[in-house]
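Model the whole thing, not chain by chain.
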Amino acid sequence: MTLREIKESLNLKVYSGENLLENEVTGGYASDLLSDVMGHASEGDLWITLQTHKNVVGVASLKDLSAIILVKGFTPDKETLDMAGNENIPVLGTDMETFEFCGVLYNLLK
Amino acid sequence: MHFEYKVEGGDFTLAGYASSQIKKTLKQLGADPAVIKRVVVALYEAEVNIVAHAYRGVIYADIQPGGIILRLVDEGPGIPDVEMAMTKGFSTASPQVREMGFGAGMGLPNISENADSFSIETEVNKGTTLTIEINFK
């Protein structure tokens, strides 16, 4: 499923990467611990987190994740957006909490 | 091919730079994507460890036909109990570092799981050297 389809179904805000919405999303990983994501997320995963600093973009880029979703209305730091632009990592947001967002995303992707 | 990167302790803005450069180089060399993934995980964790725990360090990367050898040499507090440090979930990271989502006690185990060979030499109040080897086949 493309990021655009997910964005439209779940009414996500796009903070960065409007031009990357055709990215293919193959799964999801929810964690706020960077080493957990480093060790266990898979290429193509959507990363669901409440961390807003720029290191999330670094991790997403190194792991070839399809996008970062910030939950609970959290917004990315300016440096995060700058880096997301450079690294071609889409950053989107939802007002939902992690548990709820994972539930709806899981149903969408299964 | 030989590369060197300096790492400053406490400077999270550049954490992951060396990992990103090595990833690009290995891609250009046509290394197996599964191997690149393992190198990236191991190197990123080791790089972040210097930023989170040491005062400064240098990463030496040697890319040879058969694999990559990474040496991360830091000046820092050293590791008093290596066995404890290797335990999943054990961390001495500061509250500020943990708030960022680092310091979950998964770094060294992640390195160990992704390396073909991994060793730690450390001296308290002096520093730590990690040697990580990952074979291309």
